[in-house]
Amino acid sequence: MSKLIALISIIVRKNMKVTILLTAIFAITLGLNYNGVVELQRIFAGVETRFVYAEDIKDPAKYFKSFHSAESEKVIMFKKPAPESVPFDIIIIHICSLSWDDLKEIGMTQEDPFFKQFDYLFTNFNSATGYSGPAVTRLLNSNCGQKPHDELLKKTPDKACLLIDSLSSVGYETYLSMNHDGKYGDFTKNIKKNVSTDTKFLYPENLNPSATFFDEKTSLFDDYAMLKRWFDLRQASNAKMTSLYYNTITMHAGSHWVGEKKWFDKDTHEQYKDVLSALLKDLNKFIELIKSSKRNTVLIFISEHGRALTGTAFQAADLRDIPLPKITKVPVGIKFIGPKFNDASVKQYLITKPTSYIAVSWVLSDFIKKSPFGNTAESPDDIVFKIPETKYVSEHEGRIIEEIDGSYLYYGKNRKWITLTPEQLK
Questions:
Q1: Where residue 89 falls among pLDDT bands split at 50, 70, 90?
Q2: How far apart, in Å, do the first and last CA atoms of the chain sit?
């Protein structure tokens, strides 16, 4: 398109009698977007132009720099709901080690009944990382555009970027819970830097562990039991609105049930399927519990990253240092729970455009502004259209994957960009 406009520019400069009518003809014929029309108008007016479109940046290093420059300007602002707005709770379930590719490997797709229950389903969501720490930090900072990996971990969080802090500021009583103690990898320490100071932490105390983490030291607990603990507190609370961030890591490679003998000899796919089945059973049970309360609730199901259940020609199974799309493209679903929705059939809306964490923040801010449980709810079609797009870029400790014109490029320790082959991506 840019080459075509350049050719038009040459023609026009040789004949400055071209009128605004030609602008309209070219715009309609070529299907130009707003920037294209503006550029044509400038050309026809004899103005020298130097527009640079995202699709015209072919140099991967320049693309990476421009991507983060554009992302640094994005921020979602939360406003308190209007007095007449119908209140609702927010529950975010953050799951370790689950990608669309992992699901495909065990024969599950977005058509599975679990995923069909979501009102909105993201099928092209990029977690931007293959590790839990960065994934949690990115989600908790999702008010802002995607940050470079190094900046994300080294800098003190910008208050404007903090999702939980924003929820607290607009009237939510905030909770955080997990099915582990949060000690491994300074998990809890990292989270505390990225949530509001008044957030209440619920730890798995006085419960018998159901599984053991891969380090053979960390106990893991039943997801439903932990979620019900929050539910019981919520039932006793007089707060108008509450939010819960819940993290579960039982899906991680090497985790196994308490008392399970020779788990390491079992087929990896079958063991993964068994753990996922238990998780989804617990979540479905929890959803029914929320329904029984008659409370209006927005539940968000989101994965941290994939498990890498199978390897590629570029990286072995269970390794995630190179954040390939098969690891970072993860399922995200949004479900409405409440009297208005509980007995209604679900008409699911798919978000297929490339998205990442800021989409979660945008959706929540929009729901708070126009409650989906009231009479002034925004139409689903408008929501799908407005959800912010984020181009595919993933990172981990100097390793970068970015998508340009349908091709995935990799930058690694040798500090060179290479185009990945289909075999390296599968």
A1: very high
A2: 31
Contact call for residues 232 and 292 (beta carbons, < 8 A): no
DSSP tag of 78 = P
pLDDT given for residue 425 in this prediction: 93
Q: CA–CA separation, 256 vs 37, rounded Å? A: 59
Q: Which DSSP category does 404 fall into?
A: E
Is residue 408 within 8 Å of residue 419, measured between CB atoms? yes
CB crowding 362-377: b at 16 or more within 10 Å, else e: bbbbbbbbbbbbbeeb
What kind and span of H or E run contains 2? helix 2-14
Least confident of 21-30, 175-184, 395-404: 21-30
**Short-list 316, 317, 377, CA closest to 341:** 377
Would you tell me how many other CB atoms lie within 10 Å of the CB of residue 47?
9
Within 10 angstroms of residue 20's Cβ, the number of other Cβ atoms is 11
pLDDT at 152: 85
Q: Which residues pair with 301 in a beta bridge?
A: 93, 333
3-state DSSP helix/strand/coil percent for the chain, to nearest 5? 40, 20, 45
Residue 225: closest CA among 200, 242, 250 = 250
Tokens 């890591």 locate to 249
Q: Is pLDDT above 60 for 8?
A: no
The pLDDT of residue 24 is: 42
Q: Where would I find the H helices in 76-186? A: 100-105, 113-116, 132-140, 149-154, 163-169
How high is the mean pLDDT of the chain? 88
CB atoms within 10 A of CB 215: 11
Question: b/e per residue, 227-265, with b = 16+ CB within 10 A?
Answer: bebbbebbeeeeeebbbbbbbbbbbbbebbbeeeeeeee
Query: Could you give the angle at the alpha carbon of 252 between the alpha carbons of 324 and 262, nearest 5°?
Result: 125
Cα(312)–Cα(426) distance, rounded to whole angstroms? 6
Residue 219 DSSP SS3: strand
- Looking at domain 85-396, its CATH class is alpha beta
**Per-residue pLDDT reduced to its tens digit, 271-315:** 999 999 999 999 999 999 999 999 999 999 999 999 999 999 899
The dihedral sign for the CA sequence 390, 396, 397, 401: negative
Q: Per-domain residue ranges for the chain? A: 2-51, 85-396
